[in-house]
């Protein structure tokens, strides 16, 4: 695993659990990932703005959040079944499980 230019590697296991959410077993299989970019490449291609970015914690794919018009992170989950995404820093550390449809 090689870090991107910033050296950022995201490790879902290192992030503390959300105390209000039930445990999500999808977190158990995750390994550290390196975000593949710092932008939603699909939005950039069509010159679309995004509200926030998520990184897939299975493969490192970066895409726009569900608050964005194109919802590319959701599309990535639907195509790959990769269950958990995290807000791309510098935003708040939050994770979303698409299978359970909740924060984890």
What would your notes on this structure say?
The chain has a five-stranded antiparallel sheet with strand order 2-1-3-4-5. The two termini are about 25 Å apart. The protein is globular and about 40 Å long. Strand 3 and strand 4 (about 95) form a beta hairpin. It is of the alpha+beta class and about 100 residues long. It has two helices and five strands; from the N terminus they run αββαβββ. Residues about 1-5 have low confidence and may be disordered. The longest helix is centred in the C-terminal third of the chain and has 9 residues, at about 70-80. It has helices at about 40-45, 70-80; strands at about 55, 60-65, 85, 95, 100-104.
Task: Outline the secondary-structure elements.
Elements: H1 41-45, E1 53-56, E2 62-64, H2 72-80, E3 84-87, E4 95-97, E5 102-103
Antiparallel strand pairs: 1-2, 1-3, 3-4, 4-5
């Amino acid at each position: 695993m090689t870090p991107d230019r910033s050296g950022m590697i995201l490790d879902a296991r290192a992030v503390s659990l959300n105390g209000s959410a039930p445990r999500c077993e999808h977190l158990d299989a995750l390994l550290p990932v390196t975000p593949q970019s710092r932008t939603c490449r699909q939005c950039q291609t069509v010159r679309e703005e995004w509200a926030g970015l998520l990184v897939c914690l299975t493969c490192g794919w970066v895409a726009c959040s569900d608050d964005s018009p194109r919802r590319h992170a959701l599309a990535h989950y639907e195509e790959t079944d990769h269950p958990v995404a995290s807000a791309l820093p510098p935003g708040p550390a939050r994770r979303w499980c698409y299978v359970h449809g909740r924060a984890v």
